[in-house]
Amino acid sequence: MAEPVLEIRNLNVDYGLGDRAVHAVRDVNLTLHRGEVLGLAGESGSGKSTLAYGLTRLLAPPGVITGGQVIYHPAQGSSYDVLALSDNGLREWRWAETAIVFQGAMNSLNPVHKISTQLMDVLKAHEPNMSAHSRAARAREMLKLVGISADRMDAYPHQLSGGMRQRVMIGMALILQPQVVIMDEPTTALDVVMQRQILGQLIELRERLGFSVIFITHDLSLLVEFSNRIAIMYGGRIVEEAPANTIYRDALHPYSKGLLSSFPALRGPRRELTGIPGSPPDLAGMPAGCSFHPRCPKAFEPCGSAIPVLGRPDTPDGAGRSVACWLHPAEQPVG
Amino acid sequence: MTSTQDAKAPAGEVVLEAIGLTKHFPVRRRLRDLFSKEHDAVHAVDDVHLTLRRGQVVALVGESGSGKSTVARLLAQLYPRTGGDIQLHGRSTTVKGGRNFRGYAARVQMIFQDPFASLNPVHTIRYHLTRALKIHHNAGDDLDAALAALLTRVSLTPPERYLDKFPHELSGGQRQRVAIARALGADPEALLADEPVSMLDVSIRLGVLNLLRDLKERLNLAILYITHDIASARYFADETLVMYAGRMVEGGDSETVTQTPAHPYTRLLIDSAPDPDRLTGDIDPLEEDRGNGEPPSLIRPPSGCRFHPRCPAAMPRCSTDLPVRLEIGDAPGHWAACWLYDKAGAQ
């Protein structure tokens, strides 16, 4: 396995303070390796978006990080904790080392500026020694890289289609060649055809530029096809983490299995499906013990009282995966 | 509140039919256009035919901008059509408002995509359902019993737990069930469901789709299921129709259309859907799509077949002649609007 580029250790994020605080992300331990695509799957209230905003320190109030570290390993130099960076350090780190493509990225572009201006703005902020001419050249190169012809340089966002705006956002995220790109539901609002085109382009770019990706989405079937490893979140915690194929063929956690069977198959035999009964948990009123146990078909004695620990299960392929479930008690806890 | 109609009406009876349905939205004219005789219009829906039968689900599949939601709103008579006909039990209908509209709404109900926006946030569930029952004179002598029956029908039990709640106190899936219950309050024959599960969590979707299927069977409803997710169309619908750029391009039973798609656009849709069995990272930008992956402008749609600029199998004829529905021959009722299947004029 390649070396880690981003290590999230015991991250905790709350909304609000004191007794009424809602624990949106709880004791999350996750590692992103160099050159890897890590898929982060979950539904409403799973904490996946909060995790992304937490680790990039983009949480809007009342979100607050209440514990943990996010260790970043740059290509050169010593590693550091992103959560401990000063304001200046953070400004340098953002966009240059780690970039984020937001959910609804199509609406994240400034409507009163041309896309070239917005692209060059990133360069101006991080590379003050670059001449205007080289900035424009770099912006043009970036647009070409994401499949937008240079003659659209002076277009305003409203003159571009949704798919093109999404590609501009991806171009903007890559313009400083960061090591880590976080994408929060990047293709949710797009057609499947556009989605496949954009993801195809992203794969190509990743092979060329060598960055790592954290891909956040509720669409598990997309992750199975696109990512190397998948982490599944439920009720603010990671409940399972394994290589993509392993999750698809041999998921251990009942929630993972339930989620996988919530996607009607387009190919292969037509199966009767049920999804998962009940509703995603209310983070303000979480059940005792395992947060999934009220909906779990396999719940038994310890599930209602003790929270399962995320760790390596006792299976032949246990070395490369982890799960938080009393059916597979952790041999070796993670984190 | 049991429907007495289903006891008499045979399954398969035609309830609602669209014939050559067309809708063009006028484009706002700028000052200089006032002097021009040309009137630009968005050709949102052109020449759509579909038939809704009792006890059957018809899926209308298409990407955003294909016109599918417009078709639903036309069938619900929420705005007037530009051309074509809508027939309820064989009789041509146009309703603009008032009592006529209410009479129509008693037979044809709609369920919207956004469970957060389709319920009034300042009213309780009791209010929403009571209103539906009272407007359509279905409250009967015992309103409470009628309300309980409605909620039980959509599996929101015990009913007392939900009646006095406000929409924001319910989850997305529960709100959508309330929206379905509200539609059932009218005791309709046809349900037009416009992307009813797209905004719900993945693990909840199947529950709602299974509920709709269950209701279809028990109440002998005719259901139009509009979606961009062709996999759910395969799972839930009997018949699948595919729309592109305002026109219908393929139709047939769901299994045939999804397993052996005939129209190049349908094939593109199915190839693009996530496939967990494809090897990781083996995603190639589809070489088959010769365009830029986007549908055309509907103000000036391409001549001939609207898909021809992107079609890998385009022939010269495709840019001049609008294709007609042609039988594929592999299954009864499977057709595609594509010159590839023109046996008579075979090249």
Structure write-up:
- The complex is a heterodimer of chains A (335) and B (347).
- By secondary structure, chain A is an alpha/beta fold.
- Chain A is built from 9 helices and 13 strands.
- The model of chain B is unreliable at 1-8 (pLDDT under 50).
- An 8-stranded mixed β-sheet of chain B has the order 6-7-8-3-9-10-12-11, sandwiched between helices. Chain B has a 4-stranded antiparallel β-sheet with strand order 2-1-4-5, covered by helices on one side.
- Chain B is globular and about 65 Å long.
- Chain B is of the alpha/beta class.
- In chain B, a hairpin with a 7-residue loop joins strand 11 and strand 12 (335-336).
- Chain B has 11 helices and 12 strands.
- At the A-B interface, helix 6, helix 7 and helix 8 of A face helix 7, helix 8, helix 9, helix 10 and helix 11 of B.
Name the average pLDDT of chain B: 87
Radius of gyration of chain B: 22 Å
Share of β-strand residues of chain A? 15-25%
**Radius of gyration of chain A, whole Å:** 21 Å
Give unreliable regions of chain A as ranges: none
Number of helices of chain B: 11
Number of helices of chain A: 9
In the predicted model, the low-confidence regions of chain B spanning at least 5 consecutive residues are: 1-8
Outline of the structure:
Chain B: This is Dipeptide/oligopeptide/nickel ABC transporter ATP-binding protein. Chain B: Pfam families: ABC_tran (PF00005), oligo_HPY (PF08352). The complex is a heterodimer of chains A (335) and B (347). With 335 residues, chain A is α/β, with parallel strands linked by helices.
